[in-house]
């Protein structure tokens, strides 16, 4: 695993994994039939792989295993974790490498679902253990609080194979705008694509360096694909005539969406280098006050605003409805019910203790720790009333976000009710989730498990929330003016010739069959 992480961390983490593997073979399962929330008397030792998720506090840490919040989590749960970090930018490649070398930790974090590309068919191959019996005995809090939709995502052949993080509201991404700049335009809150373009043009006239902040592979920069309902992801099928086809087969609207981005590129409304802007540069540019509008997970709005104010004291961020297209609708793609999930290696001997570790995360003690931190350090409590002051410096905000979102492995990640409920700004954000975001978002027909034909050629298969490579390369060239947008039908022919025809056939066969062994998930919106 030393290839996954920076060289300075490799020796420490590799040694930790080796120790954890050794411990997992020798540790005994607890024999007590006590309630699931009871902490085991013996330390729960295990290794766990976690994606860095581009979290600043994580990626800057010299050794995450020595982090004070990890140490406190271990103290509260009587555990001894060895965290193996998987770089965010190389996540799928490093995960596939992990399974190829059989260098598998005791617990593996993966994207929600049992058939993700990053799992490389490992669930089907029997790498992980089914958890039904263990959950019944040691995971009652999990079974009570995690919704059925999330459990369904981690079920294979009738057995639960992972413990899922979950979302109560699948509409998670939103349009962020510098409200202080929007007010100066005098244009009001935009609704349609044309109104959005007018605001972006005004931002440019005002000297905003990046009216719309772009990012590589259109990731967190796909708002206008949503307006035209043509997200180029293969979890987004729809009925077109008598066939089930990917949404990017809607040639007319796909070309309109691409033309929108090309116009933005030609007029300087999006950074000329957007195709190479990574997550770190994306965030740093925004927090430096050099962007007018962008897309991001809505639950992070207040933290981003706090960080922005360290460089732009008058900066004000608000969430506005996403641009609407020809059908009067819009929004970003809807997340699955289980954004991430935790699989337990079949060779682990202390699986019961590990399930207890995750079960504890549903407890009031866990909620207080992850939300507010350590009593006497980050908050005080008098007669049951908590006094918590959210950090305002960049490092402090990064640390809070890390504790609340990265370390709290199993929770409802829609938003943190504990901290948001303490302020009027937080209550306003919760209301945005319950109103604005609840009423927008794009979804499509999905197949679970994933279509077999997608595995045959990686070039035609999407990577998470990014278009398949064969489509993406043409999309970028079209926006940059290197290829005519009118050639989109030719792009579809290329996609079909590389295996897309098999994808369409399999999708239609399984959509029309009642006995295919595949669950067809219909759009939620």
UniProtKB/TrEMBL annotation:
<feature type="signal peptide">
    <location>
        <begin position="1"/>
        <end position="27"/>
    </location>
</feature>
<keyword id="KW-0449">Lipoprotein</keyword>
<keyword id="KW-0472">Membrane</keyword>
<dbReference type="InterPro" id="IPR006059">
    <property type="entry name" value="SBP"/>
</dbReference>
<dbReference type="Pfam" id="PF01547">
    <property type="entry name" value="SBP_bac_1"/>
</dbReference>
<dbReference type="InterPro" id="IPR050490">
    <property type="entry name" value="Bact_solute-bd_prot1"/>
</dbReference>
<keyword id="KW-0732">Signal</keyword>
<keyword id="KW-0564">Palmitate</keyword>
<keyword id="KW-1003">Cell membrane</keyword>
<protein>
    <submittedName>
        <fullName>Extracellular solute-binding protein</fullName>
    </submittedName>
</protein>
